[in-house]
Specification:
The protein is α/β, with parallel strands linked by helices. The protein contains 16 helices and 12 strands. It has 3 domains: 125 residues, no CATH class; 121 residues, NAD(P)-binding Rossmann-like Domain (Rossmann fold); 186 residues, no CATH class. The strands form 3 sheets. An 8-stranded mixed β-sheet has the order 3-4-2-1-5-6-8-7, sandwiched between helices. A two-stranded antiparallel sheet has the order 9-10. The C terminus is likely disordered.
Length: 455
């Protein structure tokens, strides 16, 4: 069964078990009855309850088959997801004033859902419904660590790992065998071997010695490979330890595969839903901001400007106008500075609180932007930076964001190169957890009056 099919099947069954568990809990609480006064609040909230609990199952890795390979892993992940998901649902019942939703039903539901979801995933594991896609592995290095790694890959073939070969530094070893696998070439041949053999995973056992190789592989993003190193103490201090690894070998991820398609789908749905909710919930505030722009300076309420989005496509980005009308008529496109004289009085307030960015909710709903990602840049500057800065084009691999890691980590006057480093860090490590952390930091910056001190 392919991963997409497995994920779809698991989602459908989870939806049934989540809601079936709640209905069963009502039946247990009321001796086989479903009293309308108590049951109707659940029916009104069923969609929201389902989405919240599915989101927490995703966050805790319940749709990652590698994290569901052991019974203890299954139990721990489901327990955390159900517990936190139901806590959020309980809060939601208060927000929606569904006070007739029985609290005892929540307690029963907690136990029932944990049991049902754990048993379902344990059954999946037992029956082997999911067959891991084959992952061709190329091992770089011919030391004791490499030999041990080859053995670990073989012992973990059930996860799809298969060693296609090994490379070293000595040309005389090419064509022979090492640890039961062929020596395919030297370190210099790795980029070519990756392309010709369809390698998806490169593990480097001597990272410091192979620095140039690592840099070459990081640049070759079109190959869609993952690069890990077996770390020395230095790499452990500066790298990101792989949560899964291979056997008992610690690994540091340097280049990883992009998130799977379902991650992007979940993020897109969450972006659109949140943008719609915020637009409607705070509509009076947005109208007041628009009125303030009209009354304090001549010109339109909104400012439209071409920006570069995912994969280099251009779109029109919306903002509340914060500059004087015709601010660039004499200068042409230039970057704004912290004390820019072209910014209006209310414009400074809007920038400090980031309220000028609110119209970009429309870009998010249109699928042109996300809440979190590298900030979109103007086409003129993208062409300039792509020409002058190595790796700048890589930030176009994801949709631009309303806020980003650079905005909550840097300073307004920081260099484009430093912004790029933060953007690439985000792209390499993107997850819903990281998105939530960046959003929380953005809110903290806005509430503390540091809105424009970010990049």
């Amino acid at each position: 069964m392919k991963r997409s099919t497995w994920t779809a099947l698991t989602l459908v069954v989870d939806i049934g078990l989540i809601n079936g568990g709640i209905v069963l809990s009502f039946l247990m609480r009321y001796a086989g009855e479903l009293p309308r006064f108590n049951f109707d609040p659940y029916l009104r909230m069923a969609v929201w309850i389902t989405l919240i609990q599915l989101a927490f199952l995703y966050v805790f890795g319940c749709y990652d088959p590698r994290k569901m390979s052991g019974y203890w892993d299954i139990f721990a992940s489901v327990l955390q997801a159900v517990t936190l998901g139901l806590l959020v649902v309980i809060v939601l019942t208060f927000v929606m004033r569904s006070f007739s939703f029985p609290r005892l039903v929540f307690a029963i539901t907690w136990g029932v859902q944990v049991v049902l979801l754990v048993l379902w995933r344990a059954l999946e594991t037992r029956l082997g419904l999911f067959a891991f896609e084959e992952i061709p592995v190329l091992v770089v290095g011919m030391e004791d660590t490499a030999l041990y790694l080859i053995g670990e890959v073989e012992r973990h073939r059930r996860f799809g790992y298969r060693t296609v070969g090994v490379v070293g530094r000595e040309p005389s070893a090419v064509g022979g065998e090492y640890g039961g696998v062929r020596v395919l070439g030297t370190v210099a041949d790795v980029p070519e071997l990756v392309a010709s053999l369809g390698v998806k995973y490169v593990v480097i056992t001597t990272p410091i010695r192979e620095r140039q190789l690592i840099e070459d592989l990081i640049k070759v993003r079109s190959t869609r490979i993952r690069v890990d190193v077996v770390p020395d103490l230095y790499e452990i201090m500066v790298g990101r330890i792989d949560e899964v690894g291979i056997g008992d070998i610690p690994l540091v991820s340097l280049v990883k595969l992009p998130p799977p398609a379902y991650h992007r789908t979940v993020k897109t749905i969450m972006d659109i839903v949140l943008a719609l909710v915020l637009l409607l919930a705070f509509l009076p505030l947005w109208l007041l901001v628009a009125l303030g722009v009209i009354l304090t300076s001549r010109g339109p309420v909104f400012y439209r400007q071409a920006r570069v989005g995912k994969d280099g496509g251009e779109y029109m980005m919306f903002k509340f106008r914060t500059m004087l009308k015709g601010a660039e008529e004499d200068t042409g496109p230039i970057l704004s500075t912290y004390d820019d004289e072209r910014v209006t009085g209310i414009g400074r307030f809007l920038r400090r609180t980031r309220l000028d960015e609110i119209p970009q909710f429309l870009n998010i709903i249109a699928g042109q932007m996300s809440f979190v990602g590298p900030r979109p840049e103007r086409p003129e500057f993208v062409r300039l930076y792509t020409r002058d800065i190595v790796g700048y084009k890589e930030r176009l691999a994801v949709r631009p964001g309303l806020t980003g890691l650079a905005q909550v980590s840097g300073h307004y006057a920081t260099t484009t190169e430093n912004k790029l480093k933060f953007d690439l860090l985000y792209i390499q490590n993107q997850s819903l957890q990281l998105d939530l952390k960046i959003i929380m930091k953005t809110l903290a910056a806005v509430l503390s009056g540091q809105g424009s001190s970010g990049v």
